[in-house]
């Protein structure tokens, strides 16, 4: 799916609808999930119905953990393969420095 054509709010709505399917597959009520994840039932309801406009990432991780999807969270920002130049130079890149064109 090409997510670039969707707004952040639309993506969050799609994720909430998908999440509901996973919650139901794990036989968790919104109340049980809220208690286990440490979030409010209202947050879960708004997420699943697409009416939440801003999801706290900590809450999202707690919800994903309860339905067995936390490992998939790692796919959001995968580790970069080791850069051969940095191995030879034997120093990790800490920051990018701009050349002074003055």
Detailed description of the structure:
This protein is mostly helical and 102 residues long. Helix content is 50%, strand content 0%. It has helices at 8-25, 30-37, 41-49, 57-66, 84-89. The chain starts with 7 loop residues before the first helix and ends in a 13-residue tail after the last helix. The relative contact order is 0.12. The mean pLDDT is 87.
Summarize the helices and strands and which ones pair or pack.
Blueprint: H1 8-25, H2 30-37, H3 41-49, H4 57-66, H5 84-89
The biggest beta sheet is recorded as: none
Low-confidence stretches: none
How much of the sequence lies in strands comes to under 5%
Give the strand tally.
0
Total DSSP helices: 5
Rg:
19 Å
Which keywords apply here?
single chain, 102 residues, mainly alpha, 5 helices, 50% helix, elongated
Summarize the structure.
With 102 residues, the chain is mainly α.
């Amino acid at each position: 799916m090409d997510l670039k054509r969707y707004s952040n709010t639309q993506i969050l709505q799609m994720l909430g609808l998908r999440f509901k399917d996973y919650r139901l597959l794990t036989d968790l009520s919104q109340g049980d999930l809220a208690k286990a994840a440490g979030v409010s039932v209202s947050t879960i309801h708004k997420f699943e119905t697409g009416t939440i406009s801003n999801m706290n990432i900590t809450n999202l991780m707690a919800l994903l953990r309860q339905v067995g999807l936390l490992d998939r969270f790692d796919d959001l920002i995968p580790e970069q393969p080791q850069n051969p130049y940095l191995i030879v130079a034997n120093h990790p890149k800490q920051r990018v420095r701009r050349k002074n064109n003055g």
